[in-house]
């Protein structure tokens, strides 16, 4: 990917993930978790702001982070489909966070040595937070997976249902192929992701689902209906009061 496409995709991943996690406010299974998920959402939002600000500068059309967050239609977003899926039950949310945060942590780690110093700087800040996100999701995955029969069943169902969507995180596109001599292909970090996630699944007594059907299209702007509903909630205030300042 070009630096613009990379910054936009990572910014959209973080923005949509933040919005989904924020939906748990006042609905988490315990008060401490309510606060924890809100803080993780804020971390993701902070990363989104940095990536989208840089993407706007690279785009050169005068759009800032607010324009990119609030004034784009669903087809202009480049987040992976995994991020936009409904929260489901708590097991689904933890599986989503485990899969996405592990990808982000590995991606940020490799970006620190990126030739683009701006991306490297954002990654250096975001990787510390993503490491906590991975740890938090891993603890809950083990707690549920190795818990009661009902908790184990729900956690395994969540992993099974979401697994196909993880493949998009590592899929190459035409831009990646053209720049193969200058960037690390997403597929190159897939083995590390598999090992990291696999260790958590093993500790949770959960089975790794077989690979098969793998939906994609999010990176090209082809999204599920879930994103449209999410953006309606995310963008309504800004669109109702354009140019408003607090």
Spell out the CATH superfamily: Ferritin, core subunit, four-helix bundle
Low-confidence stretches: 174-182
Structural class: mainly alpha
Mean pLDDT: 94
CATH class: Mainly Alpha
Largest sheet: none
In total, the number of strands is 0
Rg, rounded, reads: 17 Å
The CATH topology is: Ferritin
Helix content: 55-70%
- How much beta, percentage-wise? under 5%
Q: How many domain regions?
A: 1
Number of helices: 10
Detail the topology: elements first, then pairings.
Blueprint: H1 3-22, H2 31-59, H3 65-70, H4 81-84, H5 90-111, H6 117-145, H7 149-166, H8 174-178, H9 190-203, H10 225-240
Written overview of the protein:
With about 250 residues, this protein is an all-alpha fold. The chain has one domain: Up-down Bundle (Ferritin). About 65% of the residues lie in helices and about 0% in strands. It has ten helices and no strands. α1 packs antiparallel against α5. The chain is globular. It starts with a helix and ends in a 6-residue tail after the last helix. About 5% of the residues have low confidence.
């Amino acid at each position: 990917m070009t630096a613009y496409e990379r910054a936009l995709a990572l910014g959209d991943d973080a923005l949509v993930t933040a919005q989904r996690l924020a939906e748990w406010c006042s609905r988490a299974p315990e008060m401490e978790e309510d606060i924890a998920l809100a803080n993780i959402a804020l971390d993701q939002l902070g990363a989104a702001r940095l990536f989208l600000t840089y993407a706007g500068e690279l785009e050169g059309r005068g759009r800032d982070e607010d324009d990119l967050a609030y004034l784009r239609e669903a087809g202009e977003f480049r987040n992976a489909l995994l991020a936009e899926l409904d929260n489901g039950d708590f097991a689904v949310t933890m599986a989503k966070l485990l899969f996405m945060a592990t990808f982000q942590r590995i991606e940020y780690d490799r970006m620190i040595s990126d030739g683009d110093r701006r991306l490297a700087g954002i990654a250096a800040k975001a990787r510390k937070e993503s490491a906590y996100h991975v740890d938090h999701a891993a603890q809950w995955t083990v707690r549920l997976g190795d818990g009661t029969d009902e908790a184990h069943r729900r956690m395994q169902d969540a992993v099974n249902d979401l697994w196909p969507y993880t493949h998009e995180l590592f899929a190459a596109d035409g831009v990646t192929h053209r720049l193969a001599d200058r960037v690390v292909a997403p597929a190159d970090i897939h083995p590390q992701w598999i090992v990291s996630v696999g260790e958590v699944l093993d500790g949770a007594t959960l089975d790794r689902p077989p690979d098969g059907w793998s939906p994609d299209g999010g990176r090209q702007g082809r999204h599920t209906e879930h994103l449209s509903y999410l953006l309606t909630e995310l963008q309504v205030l800004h669109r109702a009061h354009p140019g408003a300042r607090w």
